[in-house]
Amino acid sequence: MVYIIVVYDMRADRTRLMLNFLRKYLTHVQNSVFEGEVTEGDLETIRNHTQTLLNPDESTIIYRIGSEKYVDRTVIGEDPTDESRFL
Amino acid sequence: MVYIIVVYDMRADRTRLMLNFLRKYLTHVQNSVFEGEVTEGDLETIRNHTQTLLNPDESTIIYRIGSEKYVDRTVIGEDPTDESRFL
To answer: Which residues cross the membrane (chains A, B) (predicted)?
Structure first.
């Protein structure tokens, strides 16, 4: 398994496409930010499918971190995932 | 040194505050996303100062990753940092 953080920059009226897709794999932690642990196969699916969702002027960055233990997460201010698992 | 990714969720008319601050330390890679290598001292400064910039309904997440070598970054679509250094 690997730990990934996905951030995306899309037109406001199109973000639902990405939201509905990424929710199947990851936790929605902030406006255009998802994170979670996935298999390498899921990561490949996420890479390929996000590409099909983007218009030319939009982008996604996927940070693949070898393992959760390398990531330390600080939330400042309101945390929309209060009820979800933390790192 | 440590590698950090900072994402923030603020009202559109207030994001310039965060942008101008984080630019002193990090690379602006996407709409509300910065990343880069910083000292532990800088990280502490970033944690403390971002807290003062936020309104109650806004948030920042700081991912601290032990070293760049643990992070693999995939950009899909338009990369606003084309001219900058990649991981």
So the answer is: none
What is the C-alpha separation between B35 and B23, in angstroms, rounded? 10
| Nearest CA distance, A4 vs chain B (angstrom) | 9
Give, as one character, the DSSP assignment of residue B58.
-
pLDDT tens-digit map of B29-81: 998 999 999 999 999 999 999 999 999 999 999 999 988 888 999 999 877 66
* Residue A69 identity (one-letter amino acid): K
From chain B, the residues in CB contact with A8 under 8 A are 30
Cα–Cα distance measured from residue A29 to residue B4, given in angstroms and rounded to the nearest whole number? 17
Contact predicate B74/A8, CB 8 Å? no
Q: CB contacts < 8 Å between A and B, how many? A: 113
> Which of the following CATH numbers is that of domain A2-70: 3.65.10.10, 3.40.190.10, 3.90.226.10, 3.30.70.240?
3.30.70.240
Residues A70-87: tens digit of each pLDDT: 899 999 987 766 544 444
The class (CATH top level) of B2-68 is: alpha beta
